[in-house]
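Long-time lurker, first post. I've been practising inverse folding by hand and with some scripts of my own, and I keep getting stuck on stretches where the structure tokens seem ambiguous. Below is the full token string for one chain I'm working on. Before anyone asks, I'm not after the true native sequence, just a reasonable design that respects the backbone. If someone could post their per-position residues I'd love to compare against what I wrote down in my notebook.
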């Protein structure tokens, strides 16, 4: 992982100062997966989309195939020959859940309990000491995200915070604080993308024995990110 992190820092000099925190975040996600835990994600607006995006990268192959074991493939084929075609496409996943992805539940909590509890209620029901909450808020002060992080702390769940550069209340609740070097919402989100892509890929590499990032060229970010000022 060290070589991939060095490359990431070289390719994204604006984010180089976050290299050690990123490595710690990867370690938390890997530990969560190995302990049978769940990675939960939450955010509002564009950060909600990022929360869903992260889950999409964790639950299936991100940059590499995560083929299932031959014995599992054989067991599926024994149930139905159709699995001869499907089994090679079935991939191992990192258990993850976006707390933004259930509109029926989210609106029920907002209506019946309190809007600030839309994520906290889910964390209370799901979270335990093996789990991780990835909390995204560009301001670091979104009330519903703070409530989720507070409940996570009381449940023994580790918290990874993605925010902007300003000091914020979420940072005090986080085990790991990934503070993008920007304050404008869209710029913070542009920095968050390469950070969480690197997080997902390095966790994939650690858990599934995927090749080093050098075999893929790099942990690229969109051009818009690479041209942002320091």
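-- Answer (accepted) --
I ran through it position by position. Result:
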């Amino acid at each position: 992982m060290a070589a991939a992190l060095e490359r990431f820092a070289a390719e994204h000099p604006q984010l180089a100062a976050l290299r050690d925190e990123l490595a710690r975040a990867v370690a938390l996600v890997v530990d969560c997966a190995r302990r049978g835990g769940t990675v939960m994600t939450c955010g509002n607006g564009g950060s909600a989309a990022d929360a869903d995006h992260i889950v999409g990268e964790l639950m299936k192959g991100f940059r590499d195939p995560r083929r299932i074991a031959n014995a599992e493939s054989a067991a599926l084929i024994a149930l139905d020959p159709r699995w001869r075609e499907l089994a090679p496409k079935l991939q191992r996943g990192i258990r993850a859940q976006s707390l933004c992805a259930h509109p029926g539940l989210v609106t029920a909590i907002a209506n019946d309990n309190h809007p600030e509890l839309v994520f906290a209620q889910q964390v209370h029901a799901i979270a335990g000491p093996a789990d991780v909450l990835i909390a995204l808020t560009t301001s670091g002060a979104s009330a519903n995200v703070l409530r989720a992080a507070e409940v996570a702390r009381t449940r023994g769940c580790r918290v990874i915070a993605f925010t902007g550069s300003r000091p914020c209340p979420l940072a005090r609740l986080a085990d790991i604080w990934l503070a993008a070097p920007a304050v404008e919402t869209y710029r913070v989100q542009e920095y968050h993308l390469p950070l969480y892509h690197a997080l997902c890929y390095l966790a994939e590499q650690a858990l599934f024995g995927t090749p080093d990032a050098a075999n893929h060229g790099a942990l690229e970010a969109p051009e818009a990110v690479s041209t942002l000022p320091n």
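A couple of notes from the structure itself: The chain has two domains: 2-59+94-226, 65-92. Residues 185-208 form the longest helix (24 residues). Happy to go over any region you disagree with.
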